[in-house]
Structures are given as structure tokens and as C-alpha cells.
Amino acid sequence: MSFTTTIEKRADNRIFAGNDPA
Asked: Are 21 and 13 in contact (CB under 8 A)?
């Protein structure tokens, strides 16, 4: 698993879903 992938997936969830994927 890549560190960058985690950051990008969290950002995607915030932008597209509109909530924080804690």
C-alpha cells in the first residue's frame, strides 16, 4: 500500500462524498 494512495483516497472521499472518511 502506498502512502500517496491513502492521501488521495481520503481527498477523493472528502471532495466527492462530502464527508470525512475517518
From this structure: yes
Are 7 and 1 spatial neighbours (Cβ–Cβ below 8 Å)? no
Q: What's the CA gap between 14 and 6, in Å, rounded?
A: 12
Encode the chain (22 residues) as per-residue pLDDT tens digits: 566 667 677 766 666 655 555 5
Q: Give residue 9's pLDDT.
A: 72
| b/e burial code for range 1-22 (CB count within 10 A of at least 16 → b) | eeeeeeeeeeeeeeeeeeeeee
